[in-house]
Specification:
6 strands; globular; about 250 residues
């Protein structure tokens, strides 16, 4: 299954809106998005209106307002997220609850080359690597594996749709996993290492605050999805010479 990141969809929609309204043709990759959750009341933010303001000789906020209005008229985009002009011309993008749910399921189903399911946990197909990861990353990975094993023993029920409020720790973990999904095919090795450690730290924050046992089935299942996705991404973004231990 091919995974289409929410950020890629949003970048394309904003680029199309800019071309439609201002006749500036941009590569969607030029529409830079930055994860701003939980600092702001949005998931992504973009400064693209400020970036092109000089070329158009227009107020950035006017540009941002026009982009947000055009995107809101696109049913495909408006069903997935809300884009609003903010401040001096920033765009704040908030994903819908339904789209967040879909992204969780899609990330979990995403088949990544070189990674296979092994007894319920994701492992590298080639396990000849013998270098060990940073301690905090190894701990996060092993903790994911332990929680997955416990969930399997407790028969956590699969639920494919839900409309529930996600805790901030859940959203933060999802956004970090989405950031990793965005760069998996790139060559940003330094960015990968930074994201790897950040993912471990955010997972441990999630682990301290979000139980998967003794809660409603739909909450348990979506949190298990987040754990499985995190375990997968910890492997996917790691350098090829790194091998994780499933037990501490």
């Amino acid at each position: 299954m091919k995974f289409i990141s929410p950020s890629r969809t949003i970048q394309k929609a904003i680029a199309i809106a800019i071309d439609s309204q201002f006749r500036i043709l941009l590569d969607p990759k030029e529409v830079l998005l930055k994860i701003c959750y939980p600092k702001y009341n949005a998931h992504y933010t973009s400064a693209i209106a400020l970036t092109i303001a000089n070329r158009l000789n227009l107020n950035p906020l006017e540009i941002a307002d026009a982009i947000a209005q055009i995107c809101s008229q696109n049913p495909e985009i408006s069903s997935q997220c809300q884009i609003q002009a903010f401040g001096k011309g920033w765009l704040n993008i908030s994903l819908s609850e339904k789209y967040i749910s879909e992204s969780l399921l899609n990330l979990d189903n995403w088949q990544i080359d070189g990674i296979a399911d092994w007894e319920g946990c994701w492992r590298k197909r080639d396990i000849s690597a013998n270098n060990r990861p940073e301690a905090i990353v190894q701990y996060a990975y092993a903790r994911c594996c332990a929680l997955i094993r416990l969930a399997n023993q407790n028969d956590v029920v699969a639920i494919h749709e839900w409309q529930l409020y996600l805790e901030p720790a859940e959203v933060s973990l999802l956004m970090q996993n989405l950031a990793i999904a965005d760069i998996l095919k790139g060559d940003e090795h330094l960015a990968r290492l930074k994201l790897l450690r950040s993912l471990a730290e955010i997972f441990l924050y999630f682990y301290d605050r979000c139980r998967i046992f003794g809660v409603a089935p739909e909450i348990a299942f979506r949190r298990l999805l987040l754990i499985r996705i995190t375990q997968k991404m910890l492997i996917a973004i790691a350098p090829p010479e790194i091998e994780y231990q499933t037990y501490l």
